[in-house]
Each structure stands twice: as structure tokens, then as C-alpha cells.
Amino acid sequence: MRLDTMFLAGVGVWLPQAVSVRSLVERGEYAANEAAARGMLSILIAEGRIAPPEMAVCAARDALARAAVPAGDIGLALHSSMYFQGIDMWPAASYIAHEAVGRGVPGYEIAQQANGGMAALQMAALTLAAGEAAGDAAPAALISTADRFSAPRFDRWRTDGSAVYGDGATAVVVSRRAGFARLLSVVTRADNSMEEIVRGSSFYPAPLAGRPLDLQPRKDDFSAATGMDFRELATRPARVIRAAMEGALAEAGVDLRSISRVISPVADRRLIMPIMQILGIDENRTTWDWGRRTGSMGAGDQFAALHWLVRTGTARPGDRLLMVGAGAGFSSTAAVIEILQTPSGDHP
User: Which of 48-52, 146-150, 198-202 has the lowest mean pLDDT?
Assistant: First the structure.
């Protein structure tokens, strides 16, 4: 989808303290060989009783303040997450919409694993574009993501052999009026046959209460059944990611050489680097240097990295960025944005 009048008006975060991996190894909480293989420097770990939706509200208020968009301009709130949102059978998106914007704004949850935030970006852009064509007065949408990967059910180091998980929340305001960045294109590609990688061989009639969540045996079952090794398991999603990237670049009318930085998903270095190599992207052009200090934030990696780029002045007016999401299932959403100005409050 090519977009001519769509903008990112504000981006906000709520991030806890980063804990160094070295200190965790020294305390015996993380194996030194595993830490070296995965390449992480620190992980964001939330303390206290704060729940992910409360974190999301903080990030949303931050994004709205930076965007200087009045609450009346927000016509839609989308929330994405990967894990528990504070209470079972409860609409977290409605809470976030109410607390950050107001009682009359529809709030919906987008659940597509780590691609949820980027999928929400596309859905927000599509909704705003359709609203403009239909004469809808609401010119903006709010996107939020939040996760807290807490023990004992979730072991941020071992639950998923493809990533180490960090806590945090992000938010983006999308507007069809103005913003610090222009959204040039957004494209999604999918291969649903890969859902089996994280499904395993059995369904269950109810949650396995009390049992720690462990995704690796499911992946091992898939690998054993198909004969695929780690490299091959990286190749299949890379094809989908490449298709999404190429589609977004083509819709925006640019090529990869004109992209200043690729905002990549955060995953285990042993997985994400082979994918980047397959795609022909040098590590120095990605946001790995940021991601290895946070851990994977679930659906919010891309928005957190964008916030970091503009806050530090690494992304400057005139730069074009390629944002790439990837989530189990498998889906990938890619977007091309052009930085127009330094957002309010984000001077290095």
C-alpha cells in the first residue's frame, strides 16, 4: 500500500531499568556460554506490580504529548502484545483507550505475535485512509504495545530459544494531517504454513496452569519432523520478510541503497543475523546495537527502536528508514518512512 498523506505524529515509550547481562552471569542467573552465543548486552526488566496495560498507558500519553494531537482527533486505538496483560478474559485495549484518550474511542487488540505492532500500523493507516475517503472527521489513530515477561510461568531467557525477552511499552500516533515522519508505504506478506513451528504436535482443551511455558520443544518437534536445521528454519521466514521488504520499497518508489537504517526485529543473534545476511543487509545498517541492550519487547521492537533513533539524533530529517516486523505464524509487515523533522522533546 502506497501512502501519500499519512504521518507518524508522535512516538513514546515506557522502559524499565536495563540490567547488564554480565551482572546476571556473575550472579549465576544466566549461563556465560549462552550469553556469549546470543550476543545480548543488557535486558529491560520491570520491577514492582505494574502491569503491561498500565505501561502502555504511560507510553501512549508520552506519544500523544509529543504529537500534540488533541484527544478528539483520535478515532481508533489499537493494542498489540504477546503475553499476559494483567488479567484473564479482559479487553486491555479498551482500558488503554479509555485511560489515554477517552471513553468513546474504539479499542481493539491485534494479536500476531511479534508482528502485532507493525500489523497495527498497517491497519491504522488503512482505517485512516478509508475514513478520509468516507468523510470521517477523526484524522488520527493511537497504536500501543506492551509486555512483561514475568516468572514463574515465563522464563525470559529460556522459554523461547529464538529470543531473550525484555519488558516495556511503546506507542505511536498515526495522523493523516502532519507529523515528524511521513509514512510512505506499508506492506504485509504471510506464510501460514509456518504456524506449526510454534504449535507443536498437540492441542489442549484448557491452559496448562502452573506449567512453565516452553516453546523450544515445539520447535524441536517441527525440526525433527521436517529435517530442517537452524539455518533452514531461518531461511523460510526470510523469504516472507524479503517479500514484505521488497513490496514496501517498491510501493514507496525507493531501493534498499537509499535506506539510511533498517529497523529490524530483536531476536537471538544466531537467528536474526543469518536472516539479515540472507536479505543482504549489513549489521551496521540495522538497529541491532539498540536491540541487544533491551531484549525483544514482543510486538514493540520497531517502535522502541524508532524512538531511540530520533531521540539520539541518529535518524535525521531527510533519512528514509525501513521498518521490518516479523511474527510467528508467519507474517511480516514492512514500512518505509521518511524523517521530516526532529520530534518535539527528542533533541540529542
Answer: 198-202
Compute the distance between CA of residue 170 and CA of residue 307 in angstroms, rounded to an integer. Answer: 9
Distance between CA 31 and CA 25 in Å, rounded?
A: 6
- Taking residues 77-97, report their average pLDDT: 96
In 3D, which of 97, 104, 90 has the Cα closest to residue 64?
97
Other Cβ atoms closer than 10 A to 341: 14
Rounded to the nearest 10 degrees, the angle between the axes of helix 230-252 and helix 269-279 is 50
0.85 surpassed by pTM: yes
Q: Which three cell numbers stand for residue 225?
A: 519432523
Residue length, the chain?
Answer: 348
Quickly tell me which residue has 478509508 as its cell: 130
**Pseudo-torsion of CA 193, 199, 201, 202, nearest 10°?**
-130
Helix-strand-coil split of the chain, %, nearest 5? 40, 20, 40
On average, the pLDDT of the chain sits at 91
Core vs surface per residue 187-215: b (16+ CB within 10 A) or e: bbbbeeebeebbbbeeeeeeeeeeeebeb
| 312-348 pLDDT, tens digit each | 999 999 999 999 999 998 999 999 999 999 876 554 3
- Residue 183 burial (C-beta neighbours within 10 Å; 0-12, 13-18, 19+): buried
- Residue 226 grid coordinates: 521436517
Reported as a pLDDT band with limits 50, 70 and 90, residue 221 is confident
Contact 145, 117 (CB under 8 A): yes
Element (DSSP H or E) covering residue 12: strand 7-14
- Spatial distance between the Cα atoms of 277 and 243, rounded to a whole number of angstroms: 15
Q: Sort 118 into a burial class: Cβ within 10 Å, 0-12 / 13-18 / 19+.
A: buried
Closest-CA residue to 169 (of 55, 255, 65, 84): 55
The dihedral region occupied by 248, where left means phi > 0, alpha psi between -120 and 50, and beta the remainder, is alpha
